[in-house]
Amino acid sequence: MSTLSSETSASDANNRSFWMPGNYQRTVKRTEDAFQACNDIVACFQERARVERQYAQQLSEWSNKWKPVVDSTPLYGSLLKAWQCFLSSADRLANLHGSVCRSLVSEDGNQVRTWQRDSFHKKLFGGFKESQDIDTGFARAQKPWAKKLKKLDKARRAYHKVSRKEQAAKEREAHAQGNPDVAIDKQKKIQEEREVAQQEAEKVRARYEKILEEVNRYAPRYMEEMESVFDQSQEEERKRIVFLKQAFLSIHKHLDVTTNESVKAVYSELNNTLLAIDEQEDLRWWKNTHGPGMPTDWPHFQEWIPEKKVKKGKKVVEKKQELIEKSVMIGGVRVRSLYDYVGQETDELSFKAGKAGEEFLKIEDEDDQGWCRGKKDDGWEGLYPANYVEVV
Prior knowledge:
Elements: H1 2-16, H2 25-71, H3 77-119, H4 129-177, H5 184-255, H6 261-275, H7 279-290, H8 312-331, E1 333-337, E2 359-364, E3 371-375, E4 381-385, E5 389-391
Antiparallel strand pairs: 1-2, 1-5, 2-3, 3-4
Helix pairs in contact: 2-3, 2-4, 2-5, 3-5, 3-6, 4-5
């Protein structure tokens, strides 16, 4: 049973062999399969691009939804900055994933499409020139071999047929020789039939061996021609593999955000903002803005001063002189920023706190709304919150 099974397995393997007639079609079909693989690759990563675009859109929508909530939150100081940084980071990541989407479509997808168009040339009635060339080469190389195999198979079947006939004649002869009921004439006739069958088997065997020798003599040439065509197919496939490897590496480069410097910068800035949360600074800001540190005009005795009657022209001159004196008085007060402030209007100053704080001049006292006027060293003047600075 095991012998029969092994023989069947060997026969199946031989029938599937590349060298058997027609089995080169798998190699021919490989070219057409590569064309379809390009279509599948483009479709696959176009879908991934849509995922990236949707993720970018969701990040942006999430950030826009929560910005007004965060801006009106009761949190303040460094905690507020940290929360806001999460939203600004989401905006930057949305832009990044949007660029990934564009790269997958416009760069990688177009690159594969262009290579596919240049590497596969469709025939008028279907198929590709490249696969047809390979198919023609294999068919031309295999045609003589297939004829010889067909001739050999015919000779083999003829030899096996006469061998069975010879074996049957031998068995009849052996049976007749051991049987006394068979007449001598009958035994002689059976013997003659066995001799004729033996001679015919030897003759057919000789023809079979001759054809087999011819086939074996032709085998090296057949193998050389088939391998030549196969090598051409392998070279084309090698080019396809090399290209698709580079295409996959390009896709990986666009998708691998772990090595993207922009992503690193986003998360590094976010981490630094979180580490910069300072409870002492936040508490001091609250104290100066809403607590005991707020400036106030404590009650004091105010002397009544009668108004002087002056001429209109003189009053205007005195008022201008008062403003000048006030400006001169305030212009001498140098202050240092405690917190970062970004001007919201064109008439407002912007400054950063940093480690030492940014210094500039206060040229007007605080008004009823809690604003002072300052002047930077570069000459720029503007308003700023009074509780964001301290006197140097």
